[in-house]
Amino acid sequence: MVHQHVLDRVFASLADPTRRGILIRLGDGPATIGELAEPTGMSLTGMKKHVRVLEDAGLVVTEKVGRTRQCRLGVAPLDEAMAWISFHQRLWGRRLDGLDAYLTLQPGSKGQDS
Amino acid sequence: MVHQHVLDRVFASLADPTRRGILIRLGDGPATIGELAEPTGMSLTGMKKHVRVLEDAGLVVTEKVGRTRQCRLGVAPLDEAMAWISFHQRLWGRRLDGLDAYLTLQPGSKGQDS
Predict the structure, then answer these.
(1) Nearest CB neighbour to A4, from listed B17, B27, B73
(2) N or C, where is chain A less crowded by C-beta within 10 Å?
(3) Which chain B residues are within 8 Å of A4, Cβ to Cβ?
(4) Looking at the partner chain, which of B7, B23, B93 has a beta carbon nearest the beta carbon of A88?
(5) Contacts of residue B36, Cβ cutoff 8 Å, sequence gap at least 6
(6) Mind listing the domains of chain A with CATH numbers?
(7) What is the ipTM for the molecules in this complex?
(8) Which residues contact B7 (CB under 8 A, 6 or more apart)?
(9) Distance CA B61, CA B51 (A)
(10) Each residue of A40-71: pLDDT tens digit?
């Protein structure tokens, strides 16, 4: 079963290069907000906002450790997003293949003219 | 090479259930704005806005045919979006597998305690 609101949040989260960068960085291991912000030159407040969006989508999990907030990947919803794209892409691929084959067989079609 | 602005637009386009619905519908074949709007109960103006977002992302191609605008799938950028998710997911998967194996081997780890 597809959870539309999960897909909404996951795709919206991925629609920003900074947030995609955070996910890539966390693929190397957990990091604090400060460690995520430092290489980007972004303020802690700005970085916190991006992390919050990823957290709301379930793509990132955060935990207070002493005075810092540790962030790590929570990848499960990404499966759902990929499954959605993959499923429809295969479906469309088959239909487009079928259309190609059909057009190639039509007299005067693009397939025969070219 | 990953085109960040393409990924931004594709993911933002997919972050809405109406727009995902349009892509699914167009998987069955081309449709006019009116045909897309009708089953949703949405106004033509509202549907046009969604189609424009998909068009800007390259996910939909439209063409003026007589007095109507015909819409069809333009699937290429979806490959890029899936490639991005797929690549990082595999990368993270391997790292998480490695972490699991590592934790299982640690004395007193969750892997051994459970």
Answers:
(1) B17
(2) N
(3) 17, 20
(4) B23
(5) B22, B25, B26, B47, B51, B71
(6) 1-106 (1.10.10.10)
(7) 0.76
(8) A14, A15, A17, A20, B80, B81, B84
(9) 9
(10) 999 999 999 999 999 999 999 999 999 899 99
